[in-house]
Amino acid sequence: DIGTEMIITKAGRRMFPAMRVKIAGLDPHQQYYIAMDIVPVDNKRYRYVYHSSKWMVAGNADSPVPPRVYIHPDSLASGDTWMRQVLDDQGHIILHSMHKYQPRVHVIRKDFSSELSPNKPVPSGEGVKTFSFPETVFTTVTAYQNQQITRLKIDRNPFAKGFRDSGRNRTGLEAIMETYAFWRPPVRTLTFEDFTNMQKQQGGSTGTSPTTSSTGTPSPSGAAHLLSPSC
Amino acid sequence: DIGTEMIITKAGRRMFPAMRVKIAGLDPHQQYYIAMDIVPVDNKRYRYVYHSSKWMVAGNADSPVPPRVYIHPDSLASGDTWMRQVLDDQGHIILHSMHKYQPRVHVIRKDFSSELSPNKPVPSGEGVKTFSFPETVFTTVTAYQNQQITRLKIDRNPFAKGFRDSGRNRTGLEAIMETYAFWRPPVRTLTFEDFTNMQKQQGGSTGTSPTTSSTGTPSPSGAAHLLSPSC
DNA sequence: GGCTTTACACCTAGGTGCGAACTT
DNA sequence: AAGTTCGCACCTAGGTGTAAAGCC
């Protein structure tokens, strides 16, 4: 699997699907912070080769942005509190386009931490646990490259309903045809696993001439924001 | 002046206008909490007498609800931080209908406070300063009693635009007539001062027979929520 | 040519007072 | 009769991918 893509813009864009985490094994009476950051997977820049549906290395990474940590707003809560709920992190984290990133979750004991701040890297050592889930790696883009990913996001993100096949430019007959010929299971929440299981082949039928892979000159791109959704 | 009215419902309703506060005189390097609560003005229940446009005492207050404190989400910030911004508090506070209430703002030095909690009354003594602005007293209702207040809220609250005279059931002629005959100044934010300056006479022209003031039996009302707006 | 930016139609989410129905 | 609840039409606010324009 090649992971999903995330659109980034100047104004900031939510990540979809969202990072969702459940915590176990904490000391119920101890106080903890929980924080999140997103780190580069490697120091490469990528380009997408349409005809092979693959991301290819296209040079070295842009100069790194100062690391940014998102501290969960419920932070400094007891282990008891944290373990009772599923977390939906939210925040603003600056990323470079056309790079691969890995979101991480940090659980930090209060008695250890030294002044947790959004602008300082998460401390490391005893009392700090960091978790990375490989299936949540994604590539930043300013426009989707892989049509299968576009399709999944449109089908599963409620805010993109306007782009679904059903409900837009369909006549009575089309609606009936969709019901049978192009039927897809009911909408459910999109998860990162959906991209892990995704086939690498795209079903595009628009007659475009395949392009040859080339080592394009990596153009420097301005850093942009990516937000993960609230709720 | 008689203060404004605030609608309360089971699901919770924002307060409009909102409580807005600017802080001065803090030690820039000291840490402070800022909190808000709403306390009864007296232990009376009220009823509105339409023909005299006045609120009359109608018995003793319902049994008080456990006090609830809203802690500003930026809390535990430096005096420097607090003084730099205007505060728009938000939260859930339970109130009885047909009572008069007074919102308060509390500024609490960190080194004094002993476990600030939404469910405990604000501590008092050295290191805690409480502010009450008499012009922000209001009466809770489940439906507006005074038509002037309804009018002001519709005119000034952007979410109530659908009930404004202009833009609803108006023909071309009506629109022109409004422009001249019923002209009112451009929309601006509603403040509590608008109610302080409000005339006690209502301009209602619907032919309703005036009711005589009576000592109505106070019906026990379920407690409901009032929220103050975010942003 | 590859990538980014911008304006946009189309949604979700939720804040308004209203009026009918309901409760006491 | 007085007050509360509920569903509603009508808004604001803001999250989607898109297509055209802009940039390099």
Automatic annotation (TrEMBL), chains A, B:
Q: Pinpoint the T-box domain residues.
A: 1-165
Q: From the Swiss-Prot or TrEMBL record, state where the protein is found.
A: Nucleus
Q: Which domain of life is it from?
A: Eukaryota
Question: Residue ranges of region Disordered?
Answer: 199-228
- Point to the regions of Low complexity compositional bias: 207-222
Q: Can you say what this protein is called?
A: T-box transcription factor 15
Region of the whole protein represented: 123 to 353 of 602
